Each structure stands twice: as C-alpha cells, then as structure tokens.
From TrEMBL:
The lineage of its organism: Eukaryota, Fungi, Dikarya, Basidiomycota, Pucciniomycotina. This is Reverse transcriptase domain-containing protein. It comes from the Eukaryota. Gene3D superfamilies: 3.30.70.270, HIV Type 1 Reverse Transcriptase, subunit A, domain 1. PANTHER family: REVERSE TRANSCRIPTASE DOMAIN-CONTAINING PROTEIN, TRANSPOSON TY3-I GAG-POL POLYPROTEIN. Pfam families: RVT_1. Residues 21-117 form the Reverse transcriptase domain. SUPFAM superfamilies: DNA/RNA polymerases.
Amino acid sequence: MKIGYNERVEVNTHFLITWHDGNTRLCGDFRALNNYTKGDRYPIPRICHTLEKLAKAKYITEMDCMKGSHQNGVKPNSMKFLGFICHMGIYEYTRMPFGTKNAPAHFQRMMDTIFEEEILEG
C-alpha cells in the first residue's frame, strides 16, 4: 500500500485486522464515499465465458494477482477522498485501496489492457 501525507483530505474510518498468522492488514470503511461515487459500468467477464475460452487454449497458466487493487494508481484529484488518520497524522492513498466502489472495474480494465492481445485471440 502506498500512502502520502496530507492535512486536507476527507477521512474514512480504518481499522487493523489481524490474520491467523499474526500479520495485520489496514482495512478502510468506504461505504460513505461509495454512496456518493458514480459507478463505473466497466463489464466484468462472466466466469462461464472465460471458461469457454480456456477450453480452447493451447497453454494454461496461473497468476496470483496479490493485492491487485493496489496495482492501480489513484488520480491526484481523487486522493483527497481516500484519507485516514493514524497516530502519525493524516494520510491519503496513492494506490487504489480495497473497498472502494470502482476498484473492481478499474482492476478489470487494467487486466483487459495488459492481456488485450490474448483476449482477442481467444
């Protein structure tokens, strides 16, 4: 997760989740922001269509897109809405956090762009 310091941001509730292995994850509650966010209607492919294409594939590989949402940057004019407070000050995300309304659409758009040639070839 990338963050930047800023004193003029909208603050969202955040809390730490402890995993079974002892690691922690910062989780944001973006429900209030999501209520005011215009939805991105970018299509997410249906699994049945994806499996149909895979059935014809010569090679199949597996990729782990761990923390995929964090691979997308946030536009500078949107960062101010992604703030949170901690003991060190007020911060904002510079990468797309999990839980924002349009994160799945942005991630899918990124994947479609990266794999455009493979998708078109079927």
